[in-house]
Amino acid sequence: MTGTVALALIPVALMIALGYGLRRSGFIAEAFWPQAERLCYFVLLPALFLNGLATADIDALPVRELALVLVGATVTVALVVVLARPLFRTDGAAFTSIFQGSIRFNNYIGVSLAAGIFGAPGIALAAVCNAAIVPTVNLLCILVFARFGTARVAALGVLRLIVTNPLVVACLGGILLQWLGVRPPAGIEPALRALGAASMPLGLLCVGAALDFGAARSWIGPVAASSVAKFLVMPMVTLLAVRLTGLGAPAATIALMFQALPTASSSYILARQLGGDAPLMAGITATQTVLAAFAIPAALALTALIP
């Protein structure tokens, strides 16, 4: 299992490194990167979530119990992080990065690991995880950005951000199509799949391009805080939820794995779009990707504690 985890993380780290090299070498014009971020946020990532949720085979899966575990654990950790904000001694924009690093997850790594460990059933379980926590995480992050980000908005503005957020809309659309039993038309589904496949590499390149190691010294505290929340608190709270609900393997294994995933490349894109600390977010993403090589196997070892 450790080998499977490493194989899933290596390409992610390489894509981030490539983005860093392309930006620093000047091989690609500076004006490209903001437009690439916008393309990921408004087109590619929504296509990934919409098509993935609409086409997943979730029959005979413990959907309700798995969703309850994931949403309950995520909301609990989010509340703990918000209550602990005075301890971080950062400005509001930096706190939004700590918050995202504490609760967001990398879909690409999650799906790859689920498929590698459990095959087709793992992919279906991964789709349920996405359906449960992608909308939850995005709603929570938008609320935190509205409160602590530099782009402050009023209550109606917060509601508008939620109902018009492309990631939330795409997830709800995919869930609706799944519930109705409707798949994207034959001529459209391959296009959605191709767009979704492009979202991860381009997003990771953008993360690498945003890295600024000159500011690395100021990252230590925020990176440590978000990583403790993500790799220690989140798996332990999830394990408690698993035991309370009686969720069994393999769903419990997938739940623990997803809650120990490093934060997603979309975190950086969201920080750039909604007034967060984007360079710090890129640093958290890159650091957590490395730490995940150790954190994910440790989280999966917790399955031994499941009755």
TrEMBL record:
The chain crosses the membrane at residues 35-54, 66-88, 123-146, 158-180, 192-211, 248-271, 283-306. Its main location: membrane. One of its GO terms (biological process) is transmembrane transport. It is found in: Cell membrane. Gene3D superfamilies: 1.20.1530.20. Keywords: Cell membrane, Membrane, Transmembrane, Transmembrane helix, Transport. The keyword Transport applies. One of its GO terms (cellular component) is plasma membrane. It is a multi-pass membrane protein. Belongs to the auxin efflux carrier (TC 2.A.69) family. This is Transporter. It comes from Chelatococcus caeni.
